[in-house]
Every structure is written in C-alpha cells, then in structure tokens.
Specification:
One of its GO terms (biological process) is carbohydrate metabolic process. It comes from Hyaloscypha variabilis (strain UAMH 11265 / GT02V1 / F). By secondary structure, this protein is mostly beta strands. 43% of the residues are buried. It folds into two domains: 247 residues, Glycosyl hydrolase domain, family 43 (Tachylectin-2, Chain A), CATH 2.115.10.20; 221 residues, Jelly Rolls, CATH 2.60.120. The chain is built from no helices and 36 strands. Strands 22, 24, 26, 31, 32, 33, 35 and 36 form an eight-stranded antiparallel sheet that branches. Strands 23-25-34-27-28-29-30 form a seven-stranded antiparallel sheet, with no helix packed on it. Bound molecules: 2-acetamido-2-deoxy-beta-D-glucopyranose (NAG) (9 copies). The site of one 2-acetamido-2-deoxy-beta-D-glucopyranose has 4 residues, from loops.
C-alpha cells in the first residue's frame, strides 16, 4: 500500500476578517500573522463585503485527489453537497473561472480544463510555466486583469528559500513571460523574524484596493524554534493598470490600505480564531468547531477518549506565543499502562505530554496511579518525570496545565482541580521538540489524549476495557504574540482579525 500525505483542495474555515468598508480614509496599522497558529497555504476572496479565507489541511489519501463542494448557504454545514472528486496529476489544484470555462492549475505549473459537475479534466495537461528555476514551483493562482492572465506561484520549497514568483500572458494557455524582478515577495536571505514567506493569494477589498495573504513562520533565520509552524500573514498590494503588482514585504507590524471596522455580527456559529476557549463538557457535548483530530473521529461528541481505537486525540491550535491551557481530567485507569493527559502535539513523533498513568510498581504488587511528564521528539529529550499521585488528590478531577512565559519553553503542571494552590511543575520542555521535525507542514496543537501504550490483546487495536478518560473543564487563553526578534504585543491587540 502506498499511503501518502497529500494536499487536497478542501473547504476549511480559517476564520474570517470581515465587514463592509466605509469611506476612504487614512491607512491602517495591523499585526501579522492575521491568522496565528497553523494556517498554511491560505487563499482569500471578498464577496459583498465579506472576506472568506481557506487554508490547507492535510489528509491521508491514495495519490492526489481534488474535492469540490457546492452550497447555496455557506454558513450551514448541512447545506453543503457531497464532494465532486477530480484527479489532477500534481498537487495544489487551483480553480479559475474564465469566460464560462473552469480551469484547474497545479504544481509545476500545469493547466487542465475542469468539468465541475463530474470532475473530468481535459487531456493532455498543458505545461504553462516552470517558474524561474527554483525547486517546487507550486501553489498557483491565476488572475485576469487589464488584458493579461497573471500566473502567481510559490517557489523554493516551503522553508527558508520560499518565495512568490509571477508571470503573465495575453492567452491563458501561454506563452507566459516571467517578471524580470522576481521574486515579488520573499524574506529569503534576510534576518527577519518572519521567515518562509510564500504561497500566497491576491484579492480586492470593497474599495478596490488589493491585498495578499501568504504563509510565514515566526522563526527568525535560525529556524529552530517555531512551534506554531506556518501561519497566515496579510500584506497590502499596489496593482496599477497594465502593470505588475507590488507586494509589501511581510513584517510583524504592518501599515497599508484602510481596514474595515471590527464586525463580530456574522452568520455562522464557529468561534473566532484569536478568541480564548472556555468549554465545560458533559456527556454528549458537541466537540467545538475549532478543534482538530488526529485521525477521523467516529462520533463528534464530548472528549471521552478510550485509547488506540477510534478517537485518541483532540486539540486546538496553539495560536499565541504565550498562553495558558488547562483541562480537568477524571480518570480511573483499570489496567497497567492506561494513560490520559494533555499534550503539545505536532505529530505522533513530536509531542510533549503530561498525563495520569497506571504504572506497574517494583515495590508493591499493585500498579500505582502516577503523574508522568514525557516527550517524544527528534532532538535530545528531557528525562521523563514520574511521581505518584499525592493521596490527597484522589477524590476529584485533576487539572493538567500547559503554560509558558516565553516562546521557547513549555511548563507542564498538575494540581487537584479543587485546590489549585497545590501545583506541581512536572517538567519543562523546549519548543524545539515541536518545531519542524516530522511535522514541518503543520503547527502545534494543544489538546487531550488517551492511550494504553500498546497494551491489549496481541494483534488487536483495542485497549483493555474500562478506564475511559473524561475531560471536563477546558480553558485556553492567549497572553502575548511575538512580532519580531525583540517585540511582543498583547494577544488582543489585533481586533480586526480576532
Ligand atoms: C457586520 O456584518 C454583517 C454581515 O455581513 C452585516 O449584516 C452588518 O451590517 C455588519 N455590521 C457593521 C456594523 O458593519
Ligand atoms: C452578493 O450580492 C448580490 C446582489 O445583492 C447577490 O445577488 C449575490 O447573491 C450575493 N453573493 C453572495 C455570495 O452572497
Ligand atoms: C462529464 O460531463 C461532461 C459534460 O456534461 C460530459 O461531456 C462528460 O462525458 C462527463 N464525463 C464523465 C466521466 O461522466
Ligand atoms: C516545463 O518543463 C517540462 C519538462 O522539462 C517541459 O516538457 C515543458 O515544456 C516546460 N514547460 C514550459 C512552458 O516551458
Ligand atoms: C490561445 O492560444 C491557443 C493555442 O495557441 C489558441 O488556440 C487560442 O485561439 C488562443 N486564444 C486566444 C483568445 O487568442
Ligand atoms: C497606504 O498604503 C498603501 C498600500 O501599502 C501605500 O501604497 C500608500 O502609499 C499608503 N499611503 C500613505 C499615505 O501612507
Ligand atoms: C522498575 O524497575 C525497572 C528496572 O530497574 C525500571 O526500568 C523501571 O523504571 C521501574 N519502574 C518504576 C515504576 O519505577
Ligand atoms: C523561558 O522559559 C523557561 C521555562 O519557564 C525558562 O527556563 C527559560 O529561562 C526562559 N527563557 C528566557 C530567555 O527567559
Ligand atoms: C491546598 O494546597 C495547599 C498547598 O499544598 C495546602 O497547603 C492546603 O492545605 C490545601 N488546601 C486544602 C483545602 O486542602
């Protein structure tokens, strides 16, 4: 079996920055990233004063598949159609409407006409442009303006060499003429805190002013500590008639065209990306719309996790440089090695955990309920820390907390939910453990997990019965956003994009 990770075109609400523009005014100041936390490969459009952003999600599939969903009512999940699937030969299919035809452009850059009703792609695929010579010409978008088709792509790979290139033609099929001043956007070869700038999309506001959105990584040129991975940044664009677009370089503090006033009165019921979480789960509670899963859940109800089979992890993005995340856990494991806890999770090969685990004891015949701090990663890991759960904690749920006072380290803390002064700091771990590694396309999530650490019948994916973990009080609150090597701002300082 050739199971691979692919980049599917899929609807995924990043969050929206929305509302009507009012009058011509002075330029605005705002802060990047506008969608903090893992929001890679962003695209954006504005329709009737509302901006819609969509990001990449990573799905497991056989080969490359594009999926198209239709709806007459964007804001209701049930109103969306089942997918129409199509099978482009390369990744990053972009959809472009022109004179009654629909095209799909993909990595390298290849163009095919697409029948949106049944997913049929025209053959043979047409080669439009190979970029300017860098690796991975991908993430194409086509714009039609002033008698030209502009073809904008990402190039250089999604690391430090990432850049945006552009070419144009008077015919969609080419030949395309590359801009002589490419790249039109990049932070490659700089000391900027925002790195990997690339893979973007251009769109207009209600005034007709142009903007762009792209991915970036808050890593500095060292590119060693960036637990939030690839985030979405906004930049102003000047695009005069008949000329090439001018893209403003991506920084933490930005100035550009006047932004719309904050407007939280929007259709739809999902939370805003920058808002805190405050959830109190009961049996059967729905899992909030901003949560993500590792593997597909069987039922989207309250976090009652059972281990290997079915849902074993659910979390939300780390969206702030510093934050506090805590969850109350009620857990009475029945068999040795049953474990549940909270985690900073990048992938199953890169995570930082504190959990309750039933461990076989060397000194007594009874397994002992313990608190365990442990990390899994590709760099030197701190030593696990195991302590027996204090006897006075036994009567109620235990609060597990992940907190930090800077962007480089996490502290993992436990306390009885009924007496938060009785805190124990079980361990401190470097955020380098959840930067890049096996998760260079994603960003860290903060969430809850359950596992039996491989126990259970041989060859079975089932854990020993019993000992389900119940996660109840869930809180996440951001404190600061780092916007340069030396500056941080309060997390609430970017109201337009909360
Ligand atoms: C906010 O957006 C909604 C939906 O687009 C719109 O109906 C409403 O008028 C907007 N409010 C303001 C103050 O702009
Ligand atoms: C935008 O507004 C026009 C005119 O009112 C309307 O016909 C159209 O359906 C609107 N589009 C969306 C996506 O709401
Ligand atoms: C897809 O639809 C088009 C237009 O109706 C039709 O010509 C084509 O045969 C269809 N392809 C398949 C595979 O059904
Ligand atoms: C891009 O490169 C491929 C492989 O070398 C070549 O077949 C194709 O003609 C090139 N496309 C263009 C537009 O130059
Ligand atoms: C674009 O080029 C193709 C291939 O040369 C040609 O068939 C087509 O007529 C051209 N379209 C226009 C609008 O010039
Ligand atoms: C406003 O922002 C735009 C886009 O960045 C820029 O071209 C323009 O010069 C700015 N205007 C002023 C007065 O700063
Ligand atoms: C029990 O002893 C083994 C071997 O000395 C050791 O590796 C293990 O960590 C011990 N277990 C506990 C729970 O202390
Ligand atoms: C960052 O936080 C960790 C954990 O609290 C601490 O050990 C470390 O000294 C801090 N680093 C700086 C530069 O303050
Ligand atoms: C709460 O914990 C503190 C610190 O361990 C302890 O001194 C205090 O007695 C505890 N309070 C209760 C009500 O158990």
């Amino acid at each position: 079996m050739n199971l691979s990770i692919t980049f599917s075109l899929a609807l995924f609400w990043c969050s929206e920055a929305l509302s009507l523009f009012q009058g011509v005014g002075t330029n605005s100041t705002y802060y990047n990233p506008v969608l903090p936390g893992w929001h890679s490969d962003p695209s954006c459009i504005q329709v009737n004063g509302t901006f819609y952003a969509i990001c990449e999600y990573l799905g497991m599939s056989y080969g490359i598949v594009g999926v198209l969903f239709k709806t007459q009512d964007l804001f209701h999940d049930e109103a969306w159609s089942d997918p129409v699937r199509f099978y482009p030969t390369k990744i990053d299919p972009d959809i472009f409407w022109d004179d009654g035809k629909v095209y799909s452009a993909t990595e390298t850059v290849i163009l095919q006409e697409l029948d949106v009703n049944n997913g049929t792609l025209s053959q043979p695929p047409l080669s439009l442009w190979n970029g300017t010579g860098g690796v991975w010409p991908e993430g194409p978008h086509i714009y039609k303006k002033d008698g030209y088709y502009y073809l904008m792509i990402a190039e250089g790979g999604t690391g430090l060499d990432h850049a945006i290139m552009i070419a144009r033609s008077t015919n969609i099929t080419g030949p395309y003429e590359a801009y002589t001043h490419n790249p039109i956007l990049s932070n490659r070869g700089t000391n900027e805190y925002f790195q990997t700038v690339g893979h973007g999309d251009l769109f207009q506001d209600v005034q007709g002013n142009w903007w762009g959105i792209c991915l970036s990584t808050r890593s500095g040129p060292e590119w060693e500590i960036y637990p939030m991975g690839r985030e979405a940044s906004l930049f102003p664009v000047t695009w005069n008639e008949g000329e090439w677009p001018i893209l403003e370089p991506v920084r933490g503090k930005m100035s550009g065209w006047q932004l719309p006033p904050e407007n939280r009165t929007l259709p739809g019921d999902g939370p805003f990306n920058g808002d805190p979480d405050s959830y109190d789960f009961n049996a059967g509670s729905a899992i909030p719309a901003n949560f993500m899963y590792w593997r597909v859940p069987r039922a989207a109800t309250s976090p009652e996790l059972t281990g290997q089979q079915g849902l074993a992890f659910v979390g939300r993005r780390q969206t702030d440089t510093t934050f506090t995340f805590s969850v109350d856990l009620a857990f009475s494991p029945q068999a040795a090695n049953q474990e549940a806890g909270v985690t900073v999770f990048l992938t199953q090969l890169n995570h930082i955990d504190v959990g309750l685990v039933l461990l076989s004891s060397n000194t007594s015949s009874k397994p002992q309920l313990s608190l365990r701090f442990r990390t899994i990663g590709t760099i030197t890991a701190p030593t696990p820390n195991i302590i027996p759960v204090p006897g006075t904690w036994a009567n109620g749920p235990i609060r597990l907390q992940i907190q930090n006072t800077n962007g480089t380290h996490y502290n993992l803390v436990a306390m009885p939910a009924s007496n938060t002064t009785a805190q124990i700091n079980l361990g401190t771990a470097s955020a380098a453990l959840v930067s890049g590694g096996s998760g260079s396309f994603v960003g860290s999530l903060l969430g809850v997990y359950a596992t039996c650490n491989g126990e259970g019948a041989a060859g079975s994916l089932d854990c020993p019965a019993g000992g389900n973990a119940y996660f109840q009080r869930w809180r996440y609150s951001g404190s600061t956003q780092q916007i340069s090597a030396t500056e941080s701002i309060p997390s609430i300082a970017n109201p337009e994009f909360m």
